[in-house]
Design goal:
Layout: E1 8-10, E2 12-14, E3 18-25, H1 42-67, H2 69-82, H3 85-96, H4 101-119, H5 121-142, E4 156-160, H6 165-169, E5 176-181, H7 189-197, E6 200-203, E7 216-220, E8 225-228, H8 232-249, E9 266-270, H9 276-281, E10 286-291, H10 293-297, H11 305-317, E11 323-327, H12 355-360, H13 362-378, E12 382-387, H14 393-405, E13 411-415, H15 418-422, H16 424-430, E14 434-436, H17 438-446, H18 464-480, E15 484-486, H19 494-502, E16 507-510, H20 515-522, H21 527-538, H22 543-557
Parallel strand pairs: 3-4, 4-5, 5-6, 9-10, 9-16, 10-11, 11-12, 12-13, 13-14, 14-15, 15-16
Antiparallel strand pairs: 1-8, 2-6, 3-7, 7-8
Helix pairs in contact: 1-2, 1-5, 2-5, 3-4, 4-5, 11-13, 14-16, 16-18, 19-20, 19-21, 21-22
The chain binds phosphoenolpyruvate and magnesium ion.
The site of magnesium ion has 4 residues, from helix 17.
């Protein structure tokens, strides 16, 4: 698309989507009310609180009904919280002390939330929901719009600082045309959600802070831009691309392959067996990364072998005869577990995490491998297991030994730290396969926290430093005859997927919603061309340069 560089705002595009529509901004939480005495009577303030709580409960229930499914359950539970007697009693106590309705609600909800948080576990997690309800009631008392995702009554481009997981879970995808965030990088919650749901998104767009409700924009994820006040010609071009993309999404599902027929199996990243059916429907040829943390994250102790077996069996049953790569528990840093990780670590990303934490808690690893072996026995899938955060040859050797002791025949490693990429050939002499986790590999190569907005510009897997490490692993795969996959978010970026294949990667695993775009892009290039595109990207000085070089190389044989 022909952009005026002056008016296009830059960020990091997620996927290949393009959308055109009016902006609606996420409203910020209301400012905390001041501790002031009310000029109204206690009864008048109580009536205001009652009316605001009723209005918020009715709004949450109505939103739940229109969203349906899991969102409805969450919203109805929130509506009930608003009317919970423990909260109303605490509000009354504040009103009796002569406080304003706003202050009474804010303080009372905070008190109850604190009590819930102290209980920990499932109830503790509900504390955040109470804060959200409290903010809604305070906004209603002030006559302000409800905080959170806006509801302008028509389709819109959502612009936010960044999105919390609770906001993203409830997005009405019939109305959200695209997401634009001011903060956040390619591995932020927003980016992961956008990829998993196939939503057009550009993240980390600092200039989007200046956008106002109603501004018309084109959000172009493929070019990582947000264009304010587009011309008619630009709008027509965008509309044509929206249509072309719809056609690509509707293209027949074939096995992943390059234009010359070189197979590149396309696998799914899953976080729960519940998503298996959708992955199969979208053409996943197996599972390249099953994250097992979901089984552990909400519990205070590790789940039993029987509980784990049931879950793994459900997963494997969805893929008879297909490869399913299950990752051993990856706890620590961005996924801490109270019973496994040391809360005292100053730098948890560099601490006892991933396989290191499992080796310090061998029982948990052994139980998990036993459960996997039992699930393997009961099903027809081809189960592979892999260890997260392997950083030495010795760790690879220990994990392979453990896996074999438990009757698991295919054991590999995730390459997520530069040391294991550099030692890939020695590791692959021991391990059966390697799977590159580009999210962490980028974090550790660039020394840039994957969750920190201020360094998100460095969190880019297109960086030639990251690509060179991928090349090392690809070459090690070729030298040892062992398969090398990529299961980080990079595999979901169609052109980067081509680069990865050009660097020697043989399988790609991604959020199922990305499969169609990646499948279509691979079919545009031969193996030789993919290698030439990768070579062009490698010579660039930075991530933006690599992207541009790859685009130019790709366009030379496959014009857009
Ligand atoms: C990765 O680091 O790229 C990866 C796939 O693992 P996770 O995102 O779960 O850390
Ligand atoms: Mg990782």
């Amino acid at each position: 698309m022909s952009y005026d560089a002056q008016s296009a705002m830059k960020g990091t595009g997620i996927g290949q989507g393009i959308a055109l529509g009016p902006v609606a901004r996420m409203s910020p939480p209301p400012a905390a009310p001041k501790d002031e005495s009310s000029t109204l009577s206690r009864e008048q303030e109580a009536a205001r609180v009652e009316a605001a709580i009723q209005a918020v409960a009715a709004d949450l229930t109505a939103r739940g009904q229109s969203a349906g499914g899991q969102a409805q359950e969450v919203l109805e539970a929130q509506a009930m919280m608003a009317q919970d007697p423990s909260v109303t009693e605490a509000v009354d106590a504040e009103l009796a002390a002569g406080k304003t309705a706003e202050y009474a609600v804010h303080t009372a909800f905070a008190e109850v939330a604190e009590q819930l948080a102290a209980l920990g576990g499932y109830l503790g997690e509900r504390a955040a929901d109470l804060h959200d309800v409290s903010a809604r009631v305070v906004a209603a008392l002030r006559g302000e719009p409800a905080p959170g995702v806006p509801d302008p009554g028509h389709p819109f481009v959502l612009v936010a600082q960044d999105l919390a997981p609770a906001d993203t879970a409830l997005l009405d995808l019939n109305h959200v045309l695209a997401l634009v965030t001011i903060e956040g990088g390619p591995t932020s919650h927003t980016a992961i959600l956008a990829r998993s749901k196939g939503i057009t998104a550009v993240v980390g767009v600092e200039a989007a802070a200046g956008l106002a409700d109603g501004d018309e924009v084109i959000v172009d994820a493929a070019h990582s831009t947000v264009l304010l006040a587009p011309s008619q010609q630009q709008k027509d071009e965008a509309a044509a691309r929206v249509e072309a993309r719809k056609a690509a999404q509707a293209a027949p599902i074939t096995e992943g392959a390059l234009a010359d027929g070189t197979p590149v199996p396309l696998l799914a990243n899953l976080g729960s067996p519940d998503n298996a059916a959708e992955a199969v429907q979208l053409g996943a040829e197996g599972v390249g990364l099953f994250r097992t943390e979901f089984l552990f994250l909400s519990s205070e102790t590790a789940p039993s072998v029987a509980e784990q077996r049931e879950s793994y069996t459900t997963l494997l049953q969805a893929f008879p005869g297909k490869k399913v790569v299950v990752r051993a528990l990856d706890a620590g840093a961005d996924k801490p577990l109270p019973f496994l990780n040391d809360a005292e670590e100053e730098n948890p990303a560099l601490g006892l995490r991933g396989l290191r934490a499992l080796l310090a808690n061998e029982e948990i690893l052994r139980d998990q491998l036993s459960a996997l072996a039992e699930a393997q026995e009961a099903t027809e899938a081809d189960l592979w297991v892999m260890a997260p955060m392997v950083s030495t040859v010795e760790e690879a050797e220990i994990f392979s030994r453990f896996a074999r002791q438990h009757g698991l025949k295919t054991a590999g490693v995730m390459v997520e730290v530069p040391s294991s990429a550099l030692l890939a050939e020695q590791i692959l002499q021991i391990s059966d396969f390697a799977s590159i986790g580009t999210n962490d590999l980028t974090q550790y190569t660039m020394a840039a926290d994957r969750l920190l907005g201020s360094v998100s510009g460095l969190q880019d897997p297109w960086h030639p430093a990251v690509l060179r490490l991928v090349r090392e692993v690809g070459a090690a795969g070729a030298a040892t005859g062992k398969p090398v996959g990529v299961c980080g978010e990079a595999a979901a970026d169609p052109l980067l997927a081509v680069v990865l294949v050009g660097l020697g990667v043989s399988t790609l695993s991604m959020a199922p919603a990305a499969l169609a775009d990646v499948r279509a892009e691979l079919l545009r290039h031969t193996k030789e061309q993919a290698e030439a595109i990768a070579a062009a990207a490698l010579t660039a000085p930075d991530a933006a340069g690599a992207r541009e070089a790859a685009r130019t190389a790709a366009a030379s044989h496959s014009p857009e």
